[in-house]
Amino acid sequence: MKSLLLTLLSLATTAACFAQRTGDSLYFLLPRDTLHLRFDAGTGQLLFDHYLSTGQSLYGTAKFYGLGLEDVYLLNPQLRTAYKPGDRVRVPIPKRAIRTNISRDSSAWFAPVRYQLGPGETLFGLARRTLGWADESILLRLNPGLNPQALSASTVLNLGYCKIDGIPPEWQGELEDPYVRQNRGLRELWEQYTPGKKLNSTNGKAAWTKKGDTSKWMALHRTAPLNSLIEIDDPRSRKKLYARVVGRIPEQIYGPNVIVVVSPLLAKAFGVRDNEFYVRTRYF
Length: 284
Description:
Mean pLDDT: 88
Number of helices: 8
Protein name: LysM domain-containing protein
Largest sheet: 6 strands, mixed
Number of strands: 12
Low-confidence stretches: 2-18
Shape: globular
Strand order of the largest sheet: 3-2-1-5-6-4
Order of helices and strands: HEEHHEEEHHEHHEEEEEHE
Keywords: Signal
Number of domains: 2
Helix content: 10-25%
């Protein structure tokens, strides 16, 4: 009996493991797969979790979704050193790859696409802002019987279908984080002035304030020269952003463990929710 239970447990574990695989050793996507998409506010992309099947390489997966390896590493930095079957690979699915109509005799060439609403998300917001559709009519057609007044964060919607023969590279947009792109000017100044200079490093907590210009990259620091540039590295979001030092940290407000106070724009770019977060700063 014990041996039978162990065998059944092993089979169940194996089945669960293979349930987390996308495609098989020959195909990266199959009609039996379902693309469960989610919207990533940081990149503005619709993301899908592809789970590597045995025989699938990271290069082949990237090529199938119209990406380069560096694009995959940007979204999955943990895969840069090693990967194995069953590993999750986050990939963007361009909006134009989603078909809202297919003929019945072509269903073998498509996989269904679904989307789970986030907290407070509406049909209007999903259709207009996330998908770029004219209105909610397509969503209502694809989800007959849906009550727009009875939506919740657990509501899963049909978005259409995605062809299983791959995504052309020209369909993929720029994957760089929009805040990192917006911060590029200061990064280029940093790269221009720092070569050959001795950089000072500090590790500790960053705080943020809701006051100040919400459109500027500014920071308060204890020792960095005023009007100089500072690099702020947030390990949680894996982002490095650059700011102009505009003042000193008020001792009567912040404790000695706070090494930098960032502006609202920086807090938003880092995706900060807590009042304080850990960072590493560099300056010259």
